[in-house]
Amino acid sequence: MSKWNTANLPDQTGRTIIVTGANSGLGAATARALSESGARVILACRDTAKAERVAAAMPGETEVRELDLANLNSVRTFTDSIERVDVLINNAGVMALPLRRTADGFEMQFGTNHLGHFALTNLLLDRITDRVVTVSSVAHRIGKINLADPNWEQRRYDRWLAYAQSKLANLMFAYELQRRLAGEGSAVISVAAHPGYAATDLMSHTETLFETVMSLGNRLLAQTADQGALPTLFAATADVEPGAFYGPDGFLGLHGHPAGSGSAPTAKDREVAAELWELSEKLCGLI
């Protein structure tokens, strides 16, 4: 039996799908495949000029809208412009940045990767008809949610632990969102995915020697962005299990085709997930 790839994408004609961070890498690959399958794709990006160039090469109906996940005012403006969407794909992210803060004062990785998507999803939820897909990472396994200091104001900053915290937060959010949707009897589902090790420009902003090392690794070891996008595409379009986590089926989940993925025990801590949700609501001004 052949493994799932873009040839297995169901026809998406008539469906509207939002992809955050669709101007490059995994997001662009995801948006392109969905466009080719007939979906109307909204590329939600901070760099709209770059997104317009990416969208111009897509065959289907596309629309570029500005969305800066590091600015909650931008998130609110974006969500106010959406009337209806079938699928929201929370894909955008930053990785291993030097210590920086969002427009709202959050640590940039936690603020962009988690809080921006948390606000986006909750503000859009009443207009989503099918599902929310949140992209996490294998790095969630080394993450720890520090509820007392999620924005690294009291601790010595560690860019990699900050990234891992944000990706663990992504996964815990996806799990908790599904529990809440199910508890309300909603037909909308929440699913998570991760790309494994894929060659993208996500690693090109660390401003360290690591960029050179990862550039070499990308050329020698990583799978392509198109391949890395497959778990997200599967989660967004296939007949999936609500609340499931999908990633590559190869060694350590780094390469391969979409399959169910395990997650760290910390990701399944319901008490921390509920506390993270409440904290995120407060930080995003949603309560």
Write the H/E string, N to C: EHEHEHEHEHEHHHEEH
**CATH topology assignment:** Rossmann fold
* Low-pLDDT ranges: 211-217
Helical proportion, percent range:
25-40%
> So what's the overall shape?
globular
Q: State the total count of DSSP E strands.
A: 8
Q: In the CATH hierarchy, what is the class?
A: Alpha Beta
Write a structural description.
This protein has nine helices and eight strands. The longest helix is centred in the middle third of the chain and has 25 residues, at 159-183. It starts with 15 loop residues before the first strand and ends with a helix. It is globular. The protein has an eight-stranded mixed β-sheet with strand order 3-2-1-4-5-6-7-8, sandwiched between helices. Helix 3 packs parallel to helix 4 and helix 5 crosses helix 9. With 287 residues, the chain is α/β, with parallel strands linked by helices.
Could you name the key traits of this structure?
287 residues; globular; 38% helix; 15% strand; 9 helices
Describe how the helices and strands are arranged.
Elements: E1 16-20, H1 25-36, E2 40-45, H2 48-56, E3 62-66, H3 72-80, E4 85-90, H4 108-124, E5 128-135, H5 159-183, E6 189-193, H6 210-220, H7 225-228, H8 230-237, E7 245-248, E8 258-260, H9 270-284
Parallel strand pairs: 1-2, 1-4, 2-3, 4-5, 5-6, 6-7
Antiparallel strand pairs: 7-8
Helix pairs in contact: 3-4, 4-5, 4-9, 5-9
